[in-house]
Amino acid sequence: MLLQFPTDPAFGLHLKALHSSYLDWITMRRFAELVNAAIFLSVILQLSPALLISSIPKQLLPNFTSTGPWKVFQNFTGAHAGDILDGLGNMKKYFQQFGYIPQGYSDFTDEFDDALEAAIKTYQRNFNLKPTGLLDEATIEQMAKPRCGNADIVNSSTSMSSGKTASIFHSVGHYSFFPGQQRWPSDRWNLTYAFYRQESIPDTAKAVFSRAFQRWAAVTLLTFSETTSTATADIKIGFFVGDHNDGEPFDGVLGTLAHAFSPTAGMLHLDGDEEWVIEGDVTTSTISTAVDLESVVVHEIGHVLGLGHSSVENSIMFPTISSRMRKVDLAADDIQGIQVLYGSNPNYTGISSTPTTTDPEREANDCGFRLYGWVPTALLAVGLGVLLP
Ligand SMILES: [Zn+2]
Ligand SMILES: [Zn+2]
């Protein structure tokens, strides 16, 4: 079955697969009644799928092809310098949004100019593509993928591959930092996090965040614990829709999925319009726009801790992730980067780098974290509503 009811009915999630009147009904019933309803609905679905089909949004139906805001770039395949193409100015805005065209640039005409060509070349280097400056298929395909809203290039300082020089003798780490190598100060190793409108976040979703934090704690001296107040927590997490007053509006389904601010701002925001999957195997989802919450959260925590984007495709800090993809394990590149900032966890037995900025007298404590055992039970895709601070 496509959907299964969550075990906690108290959360205020918008269950998109359900008819609105049914949704109202849910909010007024207690847990036992909800379980009964789940059983009842599952029977109905098995007996007569057509009965409810009209109330299921089209994006939840199998074989629905999502477009995403950047699929339109496919119209520009094969374009090159000198061309004038309807809508090409939007591609310049895309490149400016992610740092490839300077903030001062404002010539958003539809002409394929030098600024666009230079942006494409830098983008291609960052994403391991041939730096031709042409809008070939591979470049367009990469650009159209859902991604993190954080820029790849911050304040004109390139952080990904395009800003690095490989050596014949030494492999170059591709991890990057924010300008100035911002990090949490050495007297703040035990970081707390809290959710805006925490009562609307189901326990199953909170468990996803907990697991994501532990992935970073497992390789560093940092610890993370949930608290109840965003006013006092170091890291403040929320789901928002559209413009949410930080100058980085979200853009609906796919496109940008989330963003986070450098230390010590501690802000981690997720796009409430996404079909976040918090339980089950996202890779087999029939929802073409399904996005794995844990994969995105692990990435955004990397930003909260001070990491920028990486050109290593299998790294967590690579900027894009396809829908229905799961990527939650830190790659060597991620681990090396974070350990430069915070040192390594002595209990961690995998790849480590030599810490350069940690206090050698600091002892690791509370580092023996265990990842939760996680048994996928059923696909639960939820779109979280607007949660304002
Ligand atoms: Zn990012
Ligand atoms: Zn935001």
Automatic annotation (TrEMBL):
Required cofactors, per record? Ca(2+); Zn(2+)
Q: Where does Ca(2+) 3 bind?
A: 251-252, 271, 274
Q: Which GO terms describe its biological process?
A: collagen catabolic process; extracellular matrix organization; proteolysis
Is Membrane a UniProt keyword of this protein? yes
Q: Which residue ranges does the record assign to the Peptidase metallopeptidase domain?
A: 180-344
Q: Name one GO cellular component term.
A: extracellular matrix
The membrane-topology field of this record reads: Lipid-anchor; GPI-anchor
Q: Where is the active site?
A: 300
| Chain ranges for the short sequence motif Cysteine switch as given in the UniProt record | 146-172
- What binding details are noted for the cofactor? Can bind about 5 Ca(2+) ions per subunit.
Name the keywords, alphabetized.
Calcium, Glycoprotein, GPI-anchor, Hydrolase, Lipoprotein, Membrane, Metal-binding, Metalloprotease, Protease, Signal, Zinc, Zymogen
Any idea which GO molecular function terms this record carries?
metalloendopeptidase activity; zinc ion binding
Q: Name one Pfam family in it.
A: Peptidase_M10
Residues given in the record as Zn(2+) 2 binding sites: 148, 299, 303, 309, 317
Q: Give the matching InterPro entries.
A: M10A_MMP (IPR033739), MetalloPept_cat_dom_sf (IPR024079), Pept_M10_metallopeptidase (IPR001818), Pept_M10A (IPR021190), Peptidase_Metallo (IPR006026), Peptidoglycan-bd-like (IPR002477), PGBD-like_sf (IPR036365)
Q: Which SMART domains match?
A: ZnMc
**Which residues does the record give as Ca(2+) 1 binding sites?**
274
Q: Where in the cell is it found?
A: Cell membrane
Is Membrane one of the keywords UniProt gives this record? yes
Which residues are noted in the entry as Ca(2+) 2-binding?
A: 234
- Please list the residues that bind Zn(2+) 1: 244, 246, 259, 269
Q: Which family does it belong to?
A: Belongs to the peptidase M10A family. Matrix metalloproteinases (MMPs) subfamily.
- Recorded protein name is Peptidase metallopeptidase domain-containing protein
- Organism of origin is Trapa incisa
